[in-house]
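ok trying this again, last paste got cut off
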Amino acid sequence: MKFGKVDNPENIDFTLPETHPDTFRVLQNFEKQNKPSVYIGCAKWNRADLKGFYPRGTKDELEYYSSQFNSIELNATFYRNFPAQQFEKWYSKTPNDFKFFPKLGQEISHWKRLNGVAQVTNSYIDNFSNLQEKLGTIFLQLHANFGPKNFTLLQNFVESWPKNLPLAVEVRHKDWFADKEIANDFYQLLEENNISNVLVDTAGRRDMLHMRLTNNEAFIRYVGANHKTDYNRLNDWVDKLKEWIDAGLQNIHFFIHQNIEEASPLLAAHFIEKINTEFYLDLNIPNKKTIDKNGQTSLL
C-alpha cells in the first residue's frame, strides 16, 4: 500500500500518540476478558504480491494463506463486486475459524461518494453474506478528498447501515482530524451507531493515529515502510494494545501492509510471535518463521 509513503522513513517520528481520553470512557463500559479475540492478516493472498511466502508447488493460494493466517483484509472487493458464488467458494476453502474483512467497493465510496448508494450497498452486503460466520467487520474507506463538508452524506450512510452488521469507517481528508470540534462530531457519530473508527499507522500521515476507539473493536491498518524501523513500530503496538486490553478492549483486528507487500508476512510473523507471548495466545506463526538475534523475522 503506497498511502502515506515517504522517501526517508528514518526521519519520521514513529512514536505512538497517547490514547484519546474518550477511548478509556468507551472501553470502561465493557467487562474485561482474560484473553482478547485477535485476528491478524495481510491485505492480499496473491502469489505475485507475497513473493516467497508460498512453498513451491502450492496449487491454491487462498487455501495455503488461510492455513497460515486467521484472517484477510479483503481489498479485492474494493475494485469489483464479486458474485455470491465466489464468496461461497472462498468460504469452502478456508478453516472454520478464518475470517474475511472485506472493503466496500469504490463505486460506493469514491465514484458515488455515498450519494444514492443504497442499492449497490445492499448488493455488496448480500454477496458478503455468503461468507456466513466467516464474515468479519466490513469497512468503508473514503476518498482523501471526502472532507467534513460531506458529513451529512456520511451520517445518512452510517445511520442506515444494518445494526446487526459490523462496520468500520476510515476517513482520510486531513480536515477530519485538524479541527477538534469536527473530529468530535465524527467520533460521536460512529460511537452512537456502534461503528468502528479505523486507525491507520503509516509514515506520511501520522494524523490518522487518532487513538480514538468508538466501540469495542480496534481496527488497525499498519503500513510498514520496508525499513528497519518497521519491527520496533510493531513492538510499540503490542504495548499499546496491552494498555487497551487492560482498559476493557476485547476485539483486535490488525492488518499489515507494506509499500512492497512481499515483506508483509515477515512482519506479521514477528508481530504474532510478540502477541502470543504478551497475551498468552496460540495464534499460528506463518510459515513457522522464527525471530533471529536481531529481533527480525526470517525463514527457517
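PB: full thing came through this time. Residues 289-300 have pLDDT under 50 and may be disordered.
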